[in-house]
Design brief:
With 493 residues, the chain is mainly alpha-helical. It contains 22 helices and six strands. The strands form three sheets. A two-stranded antiparallel ribbon has the order 1-2. It has a two-stranded parallel ribbon with strand order 3-4.
Length: 493
């Protein structure tokens, strides 16, 4: 007790320093002169070289896991107590100490110490300083291998839940704009050449579908991830009578993992989450690209708000769509993160290997990047001004309703599609030679190529009428788009 009081006084000054000063507790005192790690240095007579410390330390990266690590340690301590492995007084000290450490980290009082390698050892060492020997009992029946896998799963689970909320917010922005523009004509493209007119509502709802599948992928990954590795110990399980169901339940998992070797060597959960992030990010990159094209002077379909545009330091007239470009560009790094970790994991023999410490940077970076991109995309969609006239004007270019006439010939006159295609091709050629739009050709012009054409066929050449012929399920007619809107609201919001 006396010792502990001294530790408490010292800690604020000493926890950042080398173990020499930390080693007041009896457990650590034998190690103080070696300079080796106070938590595993027992068999060493020398401390690591500074290069070794630099390559080995992950605390700058994994410090963000402090909350999950503390949550996990508290659940472990409660379970040890429940199983009669830890006495009540030690358990209480441990929980109190861990709560204090959480406060110190959140207040910025406790900061990373590289000598102590990672967040787990930083916290454990601090616990020694606060409560003395009882801290040494917390690591009974566990190892950093199952501890880190558990912490990391909890972190990813939270990140997945956050992505789900952010994806939903983006879907909601898209749905709102789609609702305002369920009947606004816009050119539909293939090969970035005007193909057939569609509605803006229809176009925006296609992204709602993509982001809906992304949410599905995150949820699938979450289901498979939600098994608790804690209690697998280093690799083989433990000889202590632990209750893995209890820790699994208290940490919000569905069940404990079933194989201790797999539990400490599995990083599928990180890879699956990363794959979902990468795919979602590639959807965002397509949206980013369309916003870039649409906001160009040449297209002029939309104007991004001032809040989501930047100026040029040399060309005063410029309004650059930087956020849209960055949404497109960041996809490269996120995909690289996925490929990188996949390669790190490839060929690793069982069970744990230190290579696996490389799993955190790609995950932390990818989720952070995804979050900013989802929020920026939502912001741009919410704020953009839509130029209906420019969109409508563009649907008139490129004879975009030629297919409608061919379909009409097939539907109404029972002409084989290939023959209809041929006749309409000739009509397009005639329009080009007269520098005219298809619907500006006279009925007799059309009849000179296909005598059975009537006034109804002539009307169908107008984009707003052509759009409403697309009544098939999932098609672009206003009626179908309104149905899709109703369904999207129910499915996603
Ligand atoms: N910092 C390590 C990681 O993130 C923790 C596990 C260390 N385990 C070990 N056997 N050295 O992977």
């Amino acid at each position: 007790m006396e010792d502990n009081k001294k530790h408490k006084k010292q800690t604020k000054r000493t926890y950042k320093k080398r173990p020499k000063k930390l080693a007041k507790s009896s457990t650590q005192s034998e190690l103080k002169d070696t300079g080796s790690n106070p938590l595993w240095g027992g068999r060493f007579s020398k401390g690591p070289s500074s290069i070794m410390e630099d390559i080995n330390s992950s605390v700058d990266v994994d410090w963000v896991l402090y909350e999950e690590d503390i949550e996990c340690s508290k659940a472990h301590a409660e379970m040890l107590y429940n199983q009669g492995i830890l006495n009540n007084s030690d358990k209480k000290k441990i929980i109190k100490g861990l709560n204090q450490i959480q406060r110190e980290i959140e207040d910025g009082e406790l900061t990373p110490n590289h000598t102590l390698e990672d967040i787990h050892m930083n916290i454990e060492n601090r616990l020694f300083l606060l409560i003395g020997d009882a801290a040494g009992r917390l690591h009974t029946a566990r190892s950093r291998n199952d501890q880190v896998a558990t912490d990391f799963k909890i972190w990813i689970r939270k990140a997945i839940d956050q992505s789900d909320r952010e994806l939903q917010a983006l879907q909601s922005a898209l749905i709102k704009r789609a609702e305002q523009h369920s009947d606004t004509p816009i050119p539909g493209f293939t090969h970035l050449q005007g193909a057939q007119p569609v509605t803006l509502g229809h176009h925006l709802l296609s992204y709602v579908e993509m982001f809906g599948r992304d949410r599905g992928r995150f949820n699938d990954a979450r289901k498979r991830l939600n098994e608790c590795p804690l209690g697998s110990a280093a690799l083989a399980g433990t000889s202590f009578p632990i209750d893995r169901k209890m820790t699994s339940e208290s940490l919000g998992f569905d069940r404990p993992t079933r194989n201790s070797l797999d539990s400490v060597s599995d990083r599928d959960f990180a890879l699956e989450a990363l794959a979902a992030v990468a795919l979602c990010s590639s959807h965002l990159s397509r949206l980013g690209e369309e916003l870039v094209i649409w906001s160009s002077n040449q297209f002029g379909f939309i104007r991004l708000s001032d809040s989501f545009s930047t100026g040029s330091s040399i060309m005063p007239q410029k309004r650059n769509p930087d956020a849209a470009e960055l949404i497109r560009g960041k996809n490269g790094r996120v995909t690289g993160n996925f490929v990188g970790l996949l390669n790190t994991m490839k060929g690793l023999s069982l069970a744990y290997a230190k290579d696996m410490q490389e799993d955190k940077e790609p995950i932390f970076d990818s989720f952070k990047t995804l979050s900013i991109c989802l929020r920026a995309a939502g912001g741009m969609i919410n704020d953009m001004t839509i130029n209906k006239e420019a969109m409508a004007e563009a649907t008139k270019e490129g004879h975009s309703t030629a297919t409608e006439l061919a379909d009409w010939l097939v539907r109404e006159l029972n002409i084989p599609f290939r023959n209809a295609h041929e006749s309409v091709g000739k009509i397009v050629k005639m329009a080009d030679s007269k520098d005219s739009r298809l619907w500006d050709l006279s009925l007799s012009d059309l009849q000179s190529i296909q005598p059975k054409i009537t006034k109804a066929a002539h009307d169908i050449l107008k984009p707003e009428i052509a759009i409403n012929t697309k009544t098939s399920y999932g098609g672009t007619s206003v009626k179908q788009v309104k149905l899709q809107l109703r369904q999207a609201k129910k499915r996603f919001l």
